[in-house]
Amino acid sequence: MLQFGQQDASFQAAGGYEGIRQLVNDFYQIMDHSPEASAVRGMYPEDLSDARDKLTCFLCGWLGGPRLYSERYGQISIPTFHARWPIGEAERDVWLSCMAEAIERQTWLAVFKTYLLQQLRIPAERVVQASRASKI
């Protein structure tokens, strides 16, 4: 049995494209309805169609599935892309909290839910560091 993070094991554990799309839809729904997330939600455009597609495509490749993001949008450096916004620990924590709630809504194995949230903390912290560095 493959371990998460190897080949497409994480992509498969997430339910493939459709499972990831559901996660992303839940994530943005939570963000839209959470008063605590209003400042972070304000960093996004009113219409979330592009954001939903980009995050779904990114997560597909990041989890070992097809590299849809680069096929549709080209290469991305997550920290560099997000450096244009003032993202500190508070914004990181709100984003992760919304994602944690979205992950909990999925019918995935508990061990995969834990794994995924731990993995998402890594790029989230890199975004905070890039935001700090862009202010220097």
From TrEMBL:
This is Globin. The keyword Transport applies. The keyword Plastid does not apply. Gene3D superfamilies: Globins. Belongs to the truncated hemoglobin family. Group II subfamily. Keywords: Heme, Iron, Metal-binding, Transport. It holds the Pfam family Bac_globin. Its cofactor is heme. GO terms for molecular function: heme binding; metal ion binding; oxygen binding; oxygen carrier activity. InterPro entries: GlbO/GLB3-like, Globin-like_sf, Globin/Proto, Globin_bac-like_CS, Hemoglobin_trunc.
